[in-house]
């Protein structure tokens, strides 16, 4: 603000700069959608294959999701959102019912716990019991045999609901399918809960310890503490901020507590009132994986879960709650109407879909049909690309054998790796786009086959003796030569999406600014600086910036009528780099010259 001058001297006034630097967004955050038998049903970000395996259980026979995610990270991928689908019965609390367990506290002064009130695997502590092998920190030790937290909040069989009771008694009911946070799965049947009153100087203080234990054999000594929470309270709000419902909701990978009444009291001294103890451990029960789903499931069950036509808020639609994703993969999905819907979804969110061919597709079938199904090559096909054929690779569940896998996971990894090493404007194809962890395509293509498929927008995956298995095509589903689309090539379309998303996010500051020349000049400055950075990185054609791009925002793009409507128009153009799809080398023999 202006400085108020009152005496002779020098005054310092800081004025705001017109520079609002625009930062380019990420270009290869993938979203994978499919069936798993554990993990959250809301989008969850994973940063590695081990992240995925810990949260969703790894490879599952009959479900291509885990394999595709593994292929993505093995080929250059770095970030992926996972959407776990469940069958309709699971969502309604039916076939994939959550595991439940009701735990009742003894009255104050009740019987001591077995073995002198010792917790799981622990020696009795002064004044009462001890933790299981020492209290693990929240989200602590992994379960035996590599059993890890199912990941995410409110795992099925883990959501706990506290029910009101008489003043001296208490109960906790473990129940997953509440508040729409149901994560069903049979995994929950291997977990239990130990609750123990905490004693300070020989007296209770109304607080208790809650431990989640992994116990595949209830009543045996194999129970292991995987989470432990101290000084919990059943009172909300709690002065120490240790209300059981809030703590478990924020920190536990297994259980959540939702009280129906604040009359629940802490358990009495030295009393184990819940599952997992050495003598009479009781685990969660009723957990069920439900009906496994895959694109091959009958009667469109997979597609119903994927698109959620009844409510429009489940399945892939949950990605609207994700801040940013760039690539969409539904491994093995080949249903044309479904793919068409997904293409439209990607178009609306400035994302790009990698479409799998059918496992049964052959060169002859694609030749007969003239390329991909015509219902997926419409206008929204600019935001999708079709890859053929499937890939043969080792199958970890097949005892060292191999299996065929849809290509989308591999290709998404190639996209991510190419973006990181060369930029989104480089075609994710060629000798550098070599697939890792593969044996080869399940159909061998030659130059003549490729020569037919490429002009009809089929991106081939081929094997070359020198380079291995490589992606050998970079056309969108609008890349058929007969269409003549300006978005014929994958890198051109993805570069445009990158610029659009970056400018959309980087110009939010301009909203509600005075709509006049100072604003227009600032927009030209900041957008021009962003485009100049891309030009210097080699993203555009042209020897000079004038040849490569332009940014126009003035009284020609924004008329007085626009100003009256509160609109400012910015026109941005760029000359894209088209991939050198055909390299023609002309050789001419020089005729002998006679010296004169």
What brief labels describe this structure?
596 residues; alpha/beta; Rossmann fold; eight-stranded mixed beta sheet; four-stranded mixed beta sheet; 21% helix
Can you tell me about this structure?
By secondary structure, this protein is of the alpha/beta class. It has three domains: 1-22 and 515-596, no CATH class; 30-87 and 294-492, Rossmann fold; 101-257, no CATH class. The chain is built from 14 helices and 20 strands. It has helices spanning 49-56, 65-74, 88-91, 114-117, 244-251, 301-307, 336-348, 363-369, 408-421, 447-453, 490-506, 517-536, 545-548, 560-564; strands at residues 30-35, 44-46, 80-85, 101-104, 159-163, 171-174, 191-200, 203-214, 224-232, 256-257, 327-329, 352-356, 384-388, 391-394, 402-405, 440-441, 459-464, 468-472, 549-552, 571-574. An eight-stranded mixed β-sheet has the order 2-3-1-11-12-13-17-18, with helices on both faces. A four-stranded mixed β-sheet has the order 4-6-5-10. Helix 7 links the parallel strand 11 (327-329) and strand 12 (352-356). Helix 1 runs antiparallel to helix 2. The termini are far apart. Residues 90-149, 151-182 and 260-281 have low confidence and may be disordered.
